[in-house]
Structures are given as C-alpha cells and as structure tokens.
Amino acid sequence: MKRRDFIKKTSASTALVGITGLGLSSFTTAQTKHITILHTNDVHSYIDPFPADHPKNPNMGGVARRAALISMIRKENPNVLLLDAGDIFQGTPYFNYYGGELEYKLMNMMGYDVATIGNHDFDNGIEGLLTQLKIADFEMVSANYDVRNTALHGHVKPYTIKKVDGVKIGIFGLGVELQGLVDKKNCKETVYLDPVEIATDMAHELRHNQKCDLVICLSHLGFSYKDEKDKICDILLAQKTKDIDLIIGGHTHTFLDKPVVETNSEGKKVLINQVGCYGLNLGRIDFYLTDSQLTSEGAAIVVG
Amino acid sequence: MVNLKKYPLVWKYFVLFLTFTAVTSCQKHFSPSRIEGKKIPITASQEMDSTVDRVIQPYRAHIEKELSEILAYNPETLDKSKGKWQTNIGNFMADVTLERTNRVLKLRNLPLAQVCILNHGGIRSILPKGNVTTRSAYEIMPFENSAVVIALKGTQLVEMANYIVSEKKPHPLAGLTFTIRQNEATQIKIQGQPLDEKMTYFVATSDYLSNGGDNMSFFKKGLETIDVDYKIRNILIDYFKETDTVRVKNDIRINQE
C-alpha cells in the first residue's frame, strides 16, 4: 500500500512539473502495457499440415491452423506483433509452382508485421523476391544486407519502428553470410556486412536516438554452431552487443523448448528464441512493461 | 522595425510551441517488468481458419493435379539401397543427367561432357514399379540443385575414382569405369578409352557437389565451370515426359577384383 501511495505521488508531481501553467492534464498514473510477440522462422513454403503417416511430424503444422491460433491470441490481447525470421520460401511444390505468391498472400491474411531475408528467400533471384515483396503487406528488414545496388533498393530497409499501444518497438534484421550459401547469380550485388558491427549500430540507433522501449533483432544467422565456435550466431550476437531485448532467430532449424536467456556486453539479459521450422510451432513472447521511471532495473523472466 | 501587428501571431505560435513541448514530454517510456516466453506446437487439435483454407484450396488442387500427372511407366523398382558399388537408380540418374546435359551443351556449341558423377545421398526416394508421375521426380530430387560441367585434368579423375573407393558408396556414375584392386582404382576408362592423365575431361555433376559438397574436393581443382542452368529434377521430369517406358542400363561400371 505504501508503495502504491508513493507511485501515485511521484506521478502526480511529475505531471505537475510537465504541465506548469498550461492546464493540460492528460497524464495518467502508472500503467502496465502488455505486448505479445508472435513469431515463426524457416517455414519453407510448408502450407499444408504434414500427412498423418509422416514419420517425424505426423499431422503437425499447417497455415490454416496457425491462422486460427493467431486470431485466438489476438482476441485475448490485441496488442500483437507478428514476425518471421526468414526462409519463407523453398521446400514444397507451392514454391516451385507459384514462386512464393501464396506464402506472402497467407502472411498478409494472418497480419504479419515484419520479416527478414533468409538465404532461401533468394532462391528465385533478386527479381523473384522483389515480385513477391510487391504484394507483401508486411515490411522486410535487413540491416547487414546492403541492397543499394540491386532491384531490392527501396523495398528492404534496415529497421522499422512499430508503435503498439503506446509502446515504441524497434525491429531490425540480420542475414547469414551469403558466400558459399547463396549463388551469386541469385543475390547479385547484395553485400553482406558484419552482423556484430551492424547490430551494435542498429541497437544504439533504435534505443538511444529513436528512443524505442523495446529493441528486437530478427536474425537469420543461426542459433549456434558446434563445430565452428567462432562463427557468428545468435548466442555470440547476444553476448557481443547491448541494447537488444529479444533476438528471434532462424536458419539452423533449432527447436528450442523455451527461449534461452543470455547476458549481453553490459551484463543485461537478452532473450533468444527460435521455433524449429516448417510452421510446426508458433513462438510467443509476452512483454509486460511499466513506466520506465517506475521500473527498477531488470525484468522477471519466466520461460517454458 | 518590429511589426507590432505580428505579435498576436507570434504569441499564438509560442502557445502552440509550449503545448507541443508539454505533450511530447508527456511521451512515456516503458521498460519490461516481466517477460514470458513459450513455444506453441501446432497440432491436429488446433482448429483451422476456414477462410485461409479456402484461399489455399485452388492452389492445392492445381498442384495436386500437376504432380499426379502420369508421365511414364517404370517396369522395375529402382532403389538406391541395393548394390555395393552401383545401383540401378544411380546408373539411371547419372545416364539421364549426362545425356540431357549434353543436349544443352550441344545447343550452345560447347564441348560435351564425357563423365557424370552425382552423390548417393542426393537420391531421396525409390522409383517404384508402376506409373511415374511428376511427384516421383520431386520425391527423388526435392532439392533445387542444377547441373554444372567442370573441366578436370585426368589426374583429378584418378582422384575421383579413388574417392569412390575410399567412400565405399555407390555414387551414381556414368562414362567412367574402373577396377578396384587392393583398395585402389585401376584400369580407369573414359567412354571406353583408357584415361590419359594429362588430358582435360568434362564432368557433369550438381552445383552442390562442384562446390565441394560430400567432400568431393577434386572439383576444387577444376579448370573451368560451365553453368548448365538446368535443375536436376527438371532433367528427370523432361526425361519422363519424353519416355514411354523407363529403361535402365545395368552394365558393370565398377569392378572389384
């Protein structure tokens, strides 16, 4: 009870300071915001559920089911951001026949907000990706693929900022090294830039210049590489950077049972999540936020 | 001179400015106090969104129709698990890839490939006895790999033969024969002619293998690469479309003494 009184008093006095003499009184007392982040990665054109006799994933996945699940969550909390960490394309005849048109159309229907570019999203070349991006209602972000000298220029941006229920959320994208993975004739003049350097700049820009409340990295770098300890991955990215709250990963088709908590370069917690592949799972992260001036350092993290 | 008449306007802007400042300073900043995270499996118990399913339906029906189209008849099951050094499906794939790659090279007035090597692991399904459909080609070759031709010195073909011996896998092979003697490839012949180590040969393979996939490091010493720009799956589909009954050559390509 005492704490409550204190909060009320503080916010009342802050309010007074802010509006001196102007009589504008739109300030409210401490409120909690609830933002739900839903995400997928490496869906690879899997639109239909797996067949019932499939040895590994019988009767799992399917876009029509995912769409219903997302609608259900939106009813429970309308403040949703729906994200994808890349490799939307390639894996079923839907892609071979229609080049990703249906994948994007369905993502529009589900209300995807932002996605990043995976290596397989180049499988029909720059032109193939551009054709589909023109029908996308969601934004494509990639900060370390420099596409200025390609036809994608103007269709892919380094980051985007979304305001959800008054909470400012910055989202930037990172892609995996193209050399040896993507045929030059497909990615053309796309230049791969160092993910750690770019992430450092992006996180600083979003957190300090753009004053975002949450900073999310959509990464197609891969979760971690056992045999190549120095190869950049989400774990190393989290450790080597700061000002990122959440990394949503892809590429390695890693099925994390629950998000992993890492410590960043200034000792703060970063969440990393990746939900396997083929639309078998939907990832869900719920952020409960309070007025910065009233929150003590660090959040309680409940995963699993 | 200061125009006094303008004062009210300036004053108006000043009030606007103050209001704006007050409103923006009202912009709250939030920090997470609690974060929860989990994975939600999408299972059969999850209901379907029927609107979304209706959008998928025509695409699904079209693909289903296309994939089910009967292209040819296959009189015997082709299976990669039967055979120590070669398999019927391996011979079939290497022969068809070599033949159809050469059709493209001929059209482009390029030197023809004499040899084809693919990888055992890249054959993803059997070709069952009976009707062959487009789906069969997708099942055997779900990947997007394309044919390429690499110019190799005869010495690299010796390496290739010894690679097969050491890997002990029936990699699909065409145009090259040899005999294994004491774990070594001997009597290597290209298109029936003894191999000349100094000569340059053209080898058809997949882009995956030419880039060092499956440890086929001899391709890294390639002198030249010709992009055939022909997906291996499409090579199979085009062969089936042109063929009434699938015929496989079961001649011995690798002989063990």
Automatic annotation (TrEMBL), chain A:
One of its GO terms (biological process) is nucleotide catabolic process. Residues 36-254 form the Calcineurin-like phosphoesterase domain. The keyword Hydrolase applies. Residues 1-30 form the signal peptide. One of its GO terms (molecular function) is metal ion binding. It comes from the Bacteria. CDD domains: MPP_UshA_N_like. The keyword Lyase does not apply. Pfam families: Metallophos (PF00149). Transmembrane segments: none annotated. Keywords: Hydrolase, Nucleotide-binding, Signal. Belongs to the 5'-nucleotidase family. PANTHER family: 5'-NUCLEOTIDASE, 5'-NUCLEOTIDASE-RELATED. This is Bifunctional metallophosphatase/5'-nucleotidase.
Automatic annotation (TrEMBL), chain B:
It comes from the Bacteria. One of its GO terms (biological process) is nucleotide catabolic process. PROSITE patterns: PROKAR_LIPOPROTEIN. One of its GO terms (molecular function) is hydrolase activity. Residues 84-220 form the 5'-Nucleotidase C-terminal domain. Signal peptide: none annotated. This is 5'-Nucleotidase C-terminal domain-containing protein. It comes from Flavobacterium stagni.
